[in-house]
Amino acid sequence: MKGLRAASIRCPYCGETLRVEIDCSVAEQSYIEDCQVCCRPIEFAVNVNEQGQPRVRVSREDD
Ligand SMILES: [Zn+2]
């Protein structure tokens, strides 16, 4: 259950739904990735549970 998984998130700036790849080999991570639509920096906070399912939270960088 390790490796990259696709997830859908909603951009906190423009509201578009984006497909992102989550690296599930890391149980807990946070990083910033630019929105593919509006190019603003989205903050990702990812937790991977014991089943290898990622839980992704996104927020604005300026929150
Ligand atoms: Zn956006």
Could you explain the architecture of this structure?
With about 60 residues, the chain is mainly beta. It has one domain. The chain is built from no helices and 5 strands. It has a 3-stranded antiparallel β-sheet, with no helix packed on it. Strands 1-2 form a two-stranded antiparallel sheet. The mean pLDDT is about 95. The chain is elongated. The protein binds zinc ion. The site of zinc ion has 8 residues, from loops.
Summary, kept brief:
The protein is built from no helices and 5 strands. By secondary structure, it is mostly beta strands.
Structural class: mainly beta
Seen as an oligomer or otherwise, the chain set is single chain
**First-residue to last-residue Cα separation:** 33 Å
Percent range for β-strand residues:
over 45%
Q: Which ions, cofactors or small ligands are bound in this entry?
A: zinc ion
The total beta strand count reads 5
Residue windows where pLDDT falls under 50 for at least 5 positions: none
Q: Domain count, please report it.
A: 1
Assign a percent range to the helix content. Answer: under 10%
SS summary, helix count: 0
Shape label: elongated
- Order of helix and strand elements from N to C terminus: EEEEE
Mean pLDDT: 93
**Biggest β-sheet: strands ordered side by side in the sheet:** 3-4-5
